[in-house]
Amino acid sequence: MKNIGNLKEFATTPDRFQGGHRLCPGCAHSIIVREVVNATEDDIVVSTATGCLEVCSSIYPYTSWDVSWLHIGFENAAAGISGAEAMYKALKRKGKLPVDKPAKFLAFGGDGGTYDIGFQSLSGAAERGHDFMYVCLDNEGYMNTGGQRSSATPVGAHTTTSPRGRISYGEKNWKKDLTMIMSHHGCPYVATAVPSKWKDLATKAAKGFDTEGPVFLNTLSPCTTEWKFDPADTIMISDLAVDSCVFPLYEIENGTKLTITYRPKNKIPVRDYLGAQGRFSHLFKKGNEHLIDAWQKHTDEYWEYLQRREEAGV
Amino acid sequence: MAEKYELKTKEVWDGNTAASHALRQAQVDVVAAYPITPSTPIVQNYSSYLADGYVDGEFVMVESEHSAMSACVGASAAGGRVATATSSQGYALMVEVLYQASGMRLPIVMTVVNRALASPLNIHGDHGDLYLGRDAGWIHLIANNPQEAYDMTLCAFKIAEDEDVRLPVTTNQDGFLVSHTAQIVEPLDDETAYKFVGDYKQKNPMLDFDHPVTYGAQTEEEWHFEHKARQHKALMDSPKVIEKVFAEFKELTGREYKLVESHNMEDAEVAIVAMGSNYETAKIAADEARKAGIKAGVVCPRSFRPFPIKEMAETLKNVKAIAALDRNCPMGTIGALHNEVAGAINAFGQNAIITGYIYGLGGRDTTVAHNLEVFKDLAMNAEAGKRVTPLQKFINLRGPELSFFKVGE
Ligand SMILES: Cc1ncc(C[n+]2csc(CCOP(=O)(O)OP(=O)(O)O)c2C)c(N)n1
Ligand code: SF4
Ligand SMILES: [Mg+2]
What we know:
The structure holds 2 protein chains of 2 kinds. By secondary structure, chain A is of the alpha/beta class.
């Protein structure tokens, strides 16, 4: 397992994901991707679902990827990487690849490509036990196509297909709990992470690379364009998400051992997180306050649930 | 190493068994597949070869055909021999990924056991799936019996993986009429078959970590057209390689395949053009028709894509009347095979009378007698020197007669 070391050491690792891509200034996707791909020294094959990351990093004749990289479609990043991993196993067995050089298999998908349209393919690849790590870049909507809702969009968020309006407060449903669902697939390792807690993220990625079998990392990826915050504030928004416990950081080993990896010293109110983003601004208008209360209750209950699981060692 | 499978010089195999053995003998590195009638036995046979040690590649039993083709793409881009099999709804579910596979120039081989598309749901043979993937950028080879299903599958690897082609290939066989009909098949022994197919030659493999590659890039207005045009050119140029591979195959087995197959065409005045098992039926009908004084012949394109335009026109250059039989419902126009053949003869200045027939949908029987009826129509057109029968007719359809563009209408 790669020793992540200090920030200076980590930041000077040669880049496998190069700059010059066309993601928005302040986009968290590239921060997360760099932190993940630099968390191993082994060779890697990367598969990426259609979405902001893919569209912005592979515009012919350029590529940001200094590793072997594959994009097939929106819903099949997991199936694609499972095929590549199968080929690796087959060629190793047949003596057509060096035995002493391990390679790792990694897939990236947005929340749309993971929670929704690509969920079947991910579920299948995880169930079949391929040796790969899947990283979801969860920005809570279909951002590449202009910010439509997904099953990762949280209650009250304004999106272009769950818009706020005269009689609408935005998205009606709570976010799907995909991390738990993947843990229940029998994945030996699942975890949540955010770009601002870089060491936590990189350590989890390194652990994921080191784990044999399917690994799922769910990363919250604040989107400056659709969440409506200043591009300079990406890291701050990411910190607000974990300090309010809206997006708790934890890991689960073998489906049973849950560990909380970050415990805010001062748990801040959820309204601070919501208030920092334009997509929730209407919740602060008269008549919608009950949604902020509901958010707080939902967040507290879930945080409580995680703590009880951790205490009980399950 | 995979165990050698002892085969007799003559086996009694159905089309599925024949295709399965060809996949086994090609020592495919990764098969990713999902079962569907009537191609399921291929997936099952492959599973038992694996269970008995007759194959040593990876077999990925995925959760859908969409993932089957996606895993094939991942495996092929990684750098090894890849194959799968499907039919009908499974094929339909793959369509998006078929285009992605060919756009990335990945030499995947897929056996398609042709079956109707729902609704209404139907498990029997027609060419609905083949036609659905017509423009997907794959080479589509046609096998009309179990022997050909075996032969075409071996040839498919060699064509797909050729340096000058690097395109995915389907080998098509009719659901049940070929896939489940046992006939005598003369296989090659394992060693000879593998030697014919040859070792897989990697091209830009993802597993060559010293040379990282980007597969599936984004191209918009500046480059998309150039990419697609070059892919089309690769298909248009592929007949040279197809013919080269067929020549090598003939050398090895004595069995001869051509871009356009024909029967009784030397002096034929009328001809049926058909793909699949009805080619065999029409051959018998042509022999019967000759007894009745009709100079009948039969023609079958061995590859539906690339369509052998010139060879088709050449084969038909002396006939007076042609019937193109489509085993697919064109839904609002004339059959696609009809249009291909009409386009081909027209392009070379030939003016035979051409009519279209829709037949065999959802496994409807098409017999020698039905083909004979077509020859009689053709004889009428040939004698009149102009089209006197409808432009489009339906063979063995129940209920009131259905036809379009009757003469005089
Ligand atoms: C089969 C298919 N359906 C729809 C689309 C259109 N599409 C492309 S990317 C995208 C949204 C991507 O959202 P997400 O996965 O969350 O990634 P993000 O762009 O937000 O990072 C959509 C709807 C497509 N490319 N393919
Ligand atoms: S729209 Fe959002 S996710 Fe997409 S590139 Fe811009 S900031 Fe990143
Ligand atoms: Mg998204």
